[in-house]
Amino acid sequence: MVVLSKIYTRTGDKGETALGNGDRVAKHSLRVSAYGTVDETNAAIGIARLHSSDEMDLALARVSNDMFDLGADLCTPDRENDETAPYPRLRIIDSQVDRLEAEIDAMNSRLTILRSFILPGGTALAAHLHQCRTVCRRAERLTVELAVVEDVNPAAVKYLNRLSDWFFVAGRIANNDGKDDVLWVPGLTR
């Protein structure tokens, strides 16, 4: 599917890039911003994985792979009767969203009920998972904005929405199942 024999092509030197279907667009286009922020989220996942246990690392590896699926989905506009693609388009599907929901439910069942907002922090892994969450939320906002002006796979939006929740709950797991969460104290420094 992918062959990378040469890394630089010079085709983007004038501020354009190719989408998955070969169309050329400005590098600052909303579509490129959306899938670029998905890529940024994936880079943050890579950093989080440096601090993860075996079980969490396997879960993060699954999510990281999904993020490439999501990037492929977003970089290829959906067009009816477009027969130009040399291979089937890769799209996020509902079962990927369902898997995230099941994983959130399983992780959340280990946690005590949250009675305050939490601050990013605690363990290094928790802090990095919160970074993943915030970058993922930005990717979601950009993807939702893109969906206003162009067709976007609805499952892609759902996936990003669930994934930010997944990162939140995983961050609590990384803080000794929430026991070491850093709680927000409203007005503490007034």
Key attributes of the depicted protein:
single chain, 190 residues, mainly alpha, Hypothetical Protein Ta1238, Chain: A, two-stranded antiparallel ribbon
Molecular structure report:
The protein is mainly alpha-helical and 190 residues long. The protein has one domain (19-77, 96-180): Cobalamin adenosyltransferase-like (Hypothetical Protein Ta1238, Chain: A, Up-down Bundle). Helices cover 54% and strands 5% of the residues. It has helices spanning 30-49, 54-74, 94-108, 124-149, 154-174; strands spanning 16-18, 24-26, 118-119, 182-183. The chain has a two-stranded antiparallel ribbon. A two-stranded antiparallel sheet has the order 3-4. A hairpin with a 5-residue loop joins strand 1 (16-18) and strand 2 (24-26).
Intertermini distance:
57 Å
User: Globular, elongated, flat, extended or rod-shaped: what is the shape?
Assistant: elongated
Sheet having the most strands: 2 strands, antiparallel
Percent of residues in beta strands?
Answer: 5-15%
CATH class: Mainly Alpha
Number of strands: 4
Nearest-integer average pLDDT: 91
What's the CATH H-level superfamily name? Cobalamin adenosyltransferase-like
Number of domains: 1
User: What integer value in Å does the Rg equal?
Assistant: 18 Å
Number of helices: 5
Going by CATH, the architecture would be Up-down Bundle
Biggest sheet, spatial arrangement of strands:
1-2
Query: Percent helix among the residues?
Result: 40-55%
Question: Stretches where pLDDT falls below 50 for ≥5 residues?
Answer: none
Task: Provide the CATH topology.
Answer: Hypothetical Protein Ta1238, Chain: A
